Amino acid sequence: MIQNPLYILTVLCGLIFVSEWLTRNTILKHISGPLLVIILGAILANLGLIPSASNASPVYDSIFKYVAPASIFYLLLGVNLKELKKAGLPMLLAFVMGAMGTTLGVIVALNLIDYQEVFGQNYAAIAGMMTGTYTGGSANFNAVALHYDIVREGAIYTGIVVADNIVTAVWMLVTLSLPAIMMKLRPHKELIVAGSEKVENYTEREHVGPLRLGLMLFIGLAAMLVSDALAESTAIPSVLILTTIALVLAQLKVIQNIPGAKLLGMFAVYLFLVVVGAFCELTALVEVGEHAVSILLFTVMIVLVHGAFLILMGLLLKSDWSIIAIASQANIGGASTALALAKSFKRNDLLLPAILAGSLGTGLGTYMGFVVAGLV
Fold first, then answer.
1. pLDDT digit string (tens) for 48-83?
2. Under 8 Å CB-to-CB from 111, ≥6 apart: which residues?
3. How far is CA 242 from CA 126, 153, 326, 356, in A?
4. For the residues 297-313, what does the mean pLDDT come to?
5. Backbone CA torsion sign across 306, 137, 11, 36
6. From CA 111, how far away is CA 3, in angstroms rounded?
């Protein structure tokens, strides 16, 4: 029953509904919808009510493969390229600082544990895998792992994947809270694009009929199909191609006037995030054995050093804390979670920079991983 795709989709959609209802009608309204949906997904997965990381369903793979890119596409359709004038360079700078923090974190984490005892001769490859995944998201993780054949190292590979899933989910919660906390401790002026529109609720006010909804779905699916086809024949990541297509279309008023994009985009983000929560499996790490604590400590330390370094740079440069949080999420979680964060902060002006930072991480993370694996 638990692996029944229809059951899984029913529960995931139900969790989205419950999280939205709770944030609108209960004391939990002070918690954002994306934050709550991650928590609910994690609770149900750890209770065994839906599949988790160790028994992941093909439904999850499909969501990561199709729904996450779709969320990027639809939420980009209303983005104006002029937003880059003020938010583009600061986001890029924050992203680069975050990547530097990740590399520093890998070095610190390796020296914190007996890495040769825990990882054996694979320690360099694992350092590269973690550099890649925490430079631009998990899309870079398996590229390095497959090259060094780490996927055949059952217990170690599983332990790293589980620890990565847990830390990534927790870090999403941290970055969701970071701007509010830092604005109380060290308030910095927000970098807002002049004349940018206020974000509406995602929005039930859109009048979406079958004609327009069908057209919007056709446009999105066609764009994903084209981007995948071009990615197969080139060395360009599919997400970069999809981003380019979305940006080109976003400049056309005829596309911007078609309702439904925000609704589809935000629902896709929620569906993606509830699976992120489901992958936060606590019990699976125990099964790894005696090195479970060291693996988790290794993973946590990388992200903590990354975060501390990025926050320190934010203090020195007096950066917009929302930009710092989104750049960090672009490093740790990738483009989709960075986009979800920007949307959660109600920062339309940062949607495009979030995607660009995430796309940059997807493109550079694997290369960074191989560099670190070759040097440590």
1. 899 887 788 889 888 888 888 888 788 778 666 665
2. none
3. 30, 34, 20, 11
4. 95
5. positive
6. 41
pLDDT tens digits along 238-260: 877 888 898 889 888 788 778 77
| 212 neighbors 259 (Cβ within 8 angstroms) | yes
CB 364 within 8 A of CB 136: yes
**pLDDT tens profile 332-353:** 988 878 888 888 888 888 888 8
DSSP H helices, 206-350, are 210-233, 238-250, 253-256, 261-278, 283-286, 292-317, 321-332, 335-344
**Fold of the domain built from segment(s) 5-190+208-375:** Na+/H+ antiporter like fold (1.20.1530)
65: amino acid identity, one letter: K
Residues 192-237: tens digit of each pLDDT: 544 444 434 434 455 677 888 889 999 999 999 999 999 888 877 7
Domain segments of the chain as ranges: 5-190+208-375
DSSP string, 134-193: HHH-GGGHHHHHHHTTGGG-HHHHHHHHHHHHHHHHHHHHHHHHHHHHHHHHS-------
Instruction: Locate 337 and state its tokens.
Output: 């979670």
Taking the C-alpha atoms of residue 344 and residue 77, their distance in angstroms, rounded to an integer, is 17
**What is the CA 211 to chain-centroid distance, rounded?**
32
Q: Which residue, among 328, 37, 287, 282, has the nearest Cα to 163 in the 3D structure?
A: 282
**Per the structure block, which two tokens stand in for 176?**
């969701």
